[in-house]
Amino acid sequence: MSDRGWWAWGVGRTDEMGNGLSDQRSLFPGLSPFQPLHIVILGLDCAGKTTVLYRLRFNEFVNTVPTKGFNTEKIKVTLAESRRRATFHFWDVGGQEKLRPLWRSYTRCADGLVFVVDSVDGERMEEARAELHKITRLSENHGVPVLVVANKQDLRGSLSLAEIEETLALGELGAATPWHLQPACAIIGEGLDEGLERLHAMITKRRKALRQQRQQRRKR
């Protein structure tokens, strides 16, 4: 993890970390009011979603347990390229099969999706592809940017990015869905802030395009 200037605060967590939501805005009265970006972290169970979340939150490895509901954190970051600060409100949702029907409830009004895959678990990559395409094809998620985190790239036997891209059929997500495939190791944080930069850039580009569309409609 690079020293790009991370500010983070807990908002409420589940299971061992705790579930819930509490208002922490008073802790940072000097920050300008900015609507946090609603980011949902999805993926199959054991892919490393919660490890990603708490690596971003604490900038260190946190031993986690399978998420039975959801974990949520707000993280204030300074983006390296622009040196501008942005707030990400992450929702990490359990990836067990019985919980996946609930993903839709969390992705409504999402600004971006983070889909974490286990680069070593080639046997379940097809299953991951099915879930990824299912959630991105929902009408309410049309055009929402997707950051695919290829976790555990440091382990022997991990699939290459080319193999993951092909197996997940990322090229078939559709022209309206921007995506970026990011190699990462959540335990040490490698690749996570770079991926976050790309996700923010995709969200910014989409928002600009939507504004332009609204302005054109008003002129008609």
Automatic annotation (TrEMBL):
Keyword Nucleotide-binding: yes
Binding-site residues for Mg(2+), renumbered to this chain: 50, 67
Source taxon at top rank: Eukaryota
SMART domains xrefs: ARF (SM00177), RAB (SM00175), SAR (SM00178)
A Pfam family annotated for this UniProt entry: Arf
Keywords associated with the record: Cell membrane, Cytoplasm, GTP-binding, Lipoprotein, Magnesium, Membrane, Metal-binding, Myristate, Nucleotide-binding, Nucleus
Binding site for GTP: 43-50, 95, 151-154
Coiled-coil segments on the chain, per record: none
Compartment annotation: Cell membrane; Cytoplasm; Nucleus, Nucleolus
GO MF, one annotated term: GTP binding
GO CC annotations on file: cytoplasm; nucleolus; plasma membrane
CDD domains: Arl4_Arl7 (cd04152)
Transferase recorded as keyword: no
Gene3D superfamilies tied to this protein: P-loop containing nucleotide triphosphate hydrolases
InterPro entries assigned to the protein according to its UniProt record, in alphabetical order: P-loop_NTPase (IPR027417), Small_GTP-bd (IPR005225), Small_GTPase_ARF (IPR024156), Small_GTPase_ARF/SAR (IPR006689)
Protein task: Small GTP-binding protein which cycles between an inactive GDP-bound and an active GTP-bound form, and the rate of cycling is regulated by guanine nucleotide exchange factors (GEF) and GTPase-activating proteins (GAP). GTP-binding protein that does not act as an allosteric activator of the cholera toxin catalytic subunit. Recruits CYTH1, CYTH2, CYTH3 and CYTH4 to the plasma membrane in GDP-bound form.
Subunit details: Interacts with CYTH2. Interacts with KPNA2; the interaction is direct. Does not interact with ARL4A.
UniProt name for this protein: ADP-ribosylation factor-like protein 4A
UniProt lineage: Eukaryota, Metazoa, Chordata, Craniata, Vertebrata
